[in-house]
């Protein structure tokens, strides 16, 4: 693999000077074969009795296969669409070239049923990322289409073992099948479509995490729910946060002991198993009345090490351009609307409309900078136009009664402040949670040319108008 990567780099630089020279076939043969992802119908056993649940999965699985590459590797994925509707695949958090971003109508044509699309890009950043469709994502993600995308650091944090938890939820009827209420405008304008059954790595119920006393475990968390927000608390354990959204942060304990993981967000923890052999502890969701998400269960074997390890070493930063806030240009995005609070007025196709009057016909309930638009609408104005290389200070103001995890494609930003309070670590993120009537200030360099989605990752909100684009002009 390494040799082919090096050769490809050589070819790329040679290709820049000699664009017309055909590549010799022998070298073509050396490029890695693409990984195949086949989104299609699948079955999952979510309840102990009765029928299995019909879901959609990648390669028959929910979550889909873990895609894993070393940092700097070339990624080739061939997506064969076996779904009864068009799809695309988006690589959430990965700074890909625009044409590989997987957004229907904006960066590519949707992949029709039975058709194939080849994604091809290089992973510059190490960390925990994920992939999911961007076409009707409120339904396609809700039905089970998501998977982890892990890029390994050249020097990972030393641990005894690694685990990943993909958190998701399903809304099942008494027949064990998914309730077919995708696209309900009450979900679009309210708190999103919440499931009634939680799954951890596609398995229902409380998962047992079998550990041995003294172990140090890296735990990658992903919230793949369309709408559910988690507030995760570890009983009698104090894990270290080592990254958010795949991006290293100075290792620190979970502030206040409760970790917020909103839809689309990830956090990597280093968990020291400080319990005694034979003991067991809960991992709780404080948001959901303290429901148990998992149970850390210690084997009877003696501890792996005598003493508790100290703070882990920080991971090496990813090569993201650092925003210089002293020369940053100010921009803002204002969110309004939703089914609670003051009804929004939005501009739709150039005309001001009262959203609550046209909601059932248009299914638009939110505005961003006074505009309401359908997902990936073809005829739309970008929310922001940025110059390539521009240093951006972006203020987000949420004038709604709801929380919104806001996600930007193609870029990673620093969270400078939340509700006007400076953030302690100014963490790099690709998704930032903004509370009701709250605000956040972000900093980034508009380094990646193209038209990029900026949307709420409560996917029903995105479908209800909280989706727009930033254009980075070349
Ligand atoms: Cu995770 Cu625009 O998406
Ligand atoms: Cu939202």
What keywords describe this structure?
474 residues, mainly beta, seven-stranded mixed β-sheet, globular, binds copper (II) ion
Kindly describe this structure.
The chain has 474 residues and is mostly beta strands. Helix content is 9%, strand content 40%. It has 6 helices and 35 strands. It has a 7-stranded mixed sheet with strand order 12-11-10-14-19-16-17, with no helix packed on it. β29 and β30 (421-422) form a beta hairpin. The longest helix has 16 residues, at 2-17. It is globular, with a radius of gyration of 22 Å. The two termini are 33 Å apart. The model is unreliable at 1-29 (pLDDT under 50). The structure holds CU-O-CU linkage and copper (II) ion (CU).
Mind sketching the topology for me?
Blueprint: H1 2-17, H2 25-28, E1 35-37, E2 39-44, E3 53-58, E4 67-70, E5 74-80, E6 90-92, E7 116-122, E8 127-132, H3 137-140, E9 147-152, E10 161-170, H4 185-189, E11 197-200, E12 203-204, E13 207-211, E14 216-223, E15 230-234, E16 240-244, E17 247-253, E18 259-261, E19 266-272, E20 280-285, E21 291-298, E22 329-337, E23 345-348, E24 351-354, H5 355-362, E25 366-368, E26 384-387, E27 391-399, E28 404-408, E29 413-418, E30 421-422, E31 428-429, E32 431-434, E33 439-445, E34 450-456, H6 459-463, E35 467-473
Parallel strand pairs: 1-5, 4-9, 10-14, 13-21, 22-27, 26-35
Antiparallel strand pairs: 2-3, 5-7, 6-8, 8-9, 10-11, 11-12, 14-19, 15-18, 15-20, 16-17, 16-19, 20-21, 22-25, 23-24, 27-33, 28-32, 28-34, 29-30, 29-31, 29-33, 34-35
This protein binds CU-O-CU linkage and copper (II) ion (CU).
Copper (II) ion is lined by residues 402, 404, 456, 458, 461, 466.
